[in-house]
Design goal:
Blueprint: H1 38-64, E1 73-77, H2 84-91, H3 98-108, E2 121-125
Antiparallel strand pairs: 1-2
Helix pairs in contact: 2-3
């Protein structure tokens, strides 16, 4: 076991750092400018080109989905027993494939399938 003995007394010295004991902190260095390697430059240019191509593609897509020509439509209320195929065959122009008309009606009315319920209202192109 160890013991520490503390003797009463006063200390009159003061604490002054010696020149040898004082350490200087180095001045903060200025941040070095960002340096890119050749591969880094290629990556940055590639990303910039991808962003530009994406923006261009979005602009073309927005233009393609732009205003369409007006289409005359009429509303048809589905009667009991009536099918989308039957409505499409009534609306189809002579010689027009009924399957194409069914698909057009599904897209126009945002139908998930060709199934209809009585009382449902459909938008059907005229002519």
């Amino acid at each position: 076991m160890s013991a520490i003995t503390i003797a009463p007394g006063t200390f009159r010295g003061g604490c002054t750092p010696s020149a040898a004991g004082a350490r200087r902190r180095p001045a903060p260095r200025a941040e070095a400018p960002l340096r890119l390697t050749t591969r880094g430059r290629v990556v940055v240019w590639g990303l910039a080109l991808l962003l530009a191509a994406g923006a261009g593609g979005a602009a073309v897509s927005a233009h393609a989905d732009g205003p369409r020509s007006a289409m005359e439509v009429e509303r048809v209320v589905v009667a009991p027993g009536q099918t989308l195929w039957g409505i499409a065959s009534e609306v189809a122009a002579p010689g027009e494939d009924v399957r194409d008309v069914v698909l057009r009606l599904q897209r126009l009315n945002e139908l998930p399938s060709a199934g209809l319920t009585a009382g449902q209202t459909l938008v059907v192109p005229v002519g």
